[in-house]
TrEMBL record:
It comes from Paenibacillus rigui. PANTHER family: INTEGRAL MEMBRANE TRANSPORT PROTEIN (PTHR36833:SF1), SLR0610 PROTEIN-RELATED (PTHR36833). This is ABC transporter permease. Pfam families: ABC2_membrane_6. It comes from the Bacteria. Keywords: Membrane, Transmembrane, Transmembrane helix. The chain crosses the membrane at residues 50-75, 174-198, 226-249, 256-276.
């Protein structure tokens, strides 16, 4: 049997009937929630593994930040950025990543579905493929949430006490984290979509997601101009935390920077969703 995503069958699966209207969309959302709940319950069947992986994730990330902290305590700042400002960059991007990977973990692991042929099983579910994929292996990344939250709160508390930022920085930071999660999701979705053509995308994801996200945990002044250009345009992960931090922490550019970042995130996500739809039309698989 050959799946043809251009067929009437799959068009019916991926879009709501005009007659169904809001009821069809509501049923889709309900189905997605049920799948997420089932995924969480399956993970909690192995509580020891869940809490052990959470602890290990927190330790690994803590050691990562501890290394740069030791260097900063020794020299005081890094390219004009204090340890608290770098902690802000680190905490916001970690929380954005945690949100993205909680809700769309298997978008990052699309390769395994393409290689094994398990994507066919998701295609027959009565919800859009992307939502079905996002409902798989739903993760609550407590380790990243706790560690990122602690680092961010401690750094912001110090900057509040010194007068570098004021109370408005708190809601602004929440917005930065949410905007960042959308941008990271869009980058992950765009990278995963290449899998419909090349199948193996793990090496590409190491560059566009893992390496790029690690780079913006620190000030972009550390990097040469060509690399900063890539992190702000081709792989725009720098817009997830560095760019809005310039306004929140340093009052650079102006109040319009956060709305502009929000608009960019929305447009970028829309473009990646269109790219995903194009990628699905290239997918063919044989099954029984």
């Amino acid at each position: 049997m050959v799946f043809d995503l251009n067929s009437a069958l799959f068009r019916r699966d991926f879009t709501c009937s005009p007659k169904a209207g809001g009821a069809g969309r509501l049923n889709t959302i309900r189905m997605y929630i049920l799948l997420v709940r089932a995924s969480v319950r399956s993970r909690m069947q192995y509580k020891f593994n869940f809490w052990l992986s959470t602890l290990l994730a927190a330790i690994v990330n803590l050691m990562d930040f501890a290394l740069i902290s030791i260097i900063l305590w020794k020299f005081g700042s890094l390219k004009g950025w204090s340890i608290y400002e770098i902690g802000y960059l680190y905490g916001t991007i970690m929380l954005s990543k945690a949100i993205y990977r909680s809700f769309a973990n298997d978008v990052h692991h699309l390769e395994k579905y393409l290689v094994s042929g398990d994507l066919d099983q998701l295609l027959i579910r009565p919800i859009p493929l992307l939502l079905a994929l996002m409902a798989q292996n739903f993760r609550v990344m407590f380790g990243e949430y706790i560690q990122g939250g602690i680092i961010l709160v401690l750094c912001m508390k110090t900057m509040l006490s010194t007068g570098q930022i004021d109370g408005w920085a708190i809601p602004q930071t929440i917005a930065v984290i949410l905007i960042g999660s959308v941008i990271l999701f869009a980058i992950g979705l765009g990278t995963a979509t290449f899998g419909f053509w090349i199948t193996r995308v793990s090496d590409l994801q190491n560059v566009t997601e893992d390496a790029a996200r690690t780079a913006v945990q620190y000030p972009m002044e550390l990097y040469p101009g060509w690399l900063r250009g890539i992190l702000l345009t081709l792989i725009p992960v720098g817009i997830a935390n560095y760019v809005p931090a310039l306004y929140v922490l340093r009052d650079e550019f102006g109040w319009w920077l956060l709305p502009a970042t929000t608009l960019f995130a929305a447009v970028f996500l829309w473009l990646m969703l269109q790219f995903w739809k194009l990628g699905m039309t290239r997918y063919q698989s044989t099954g029984s």
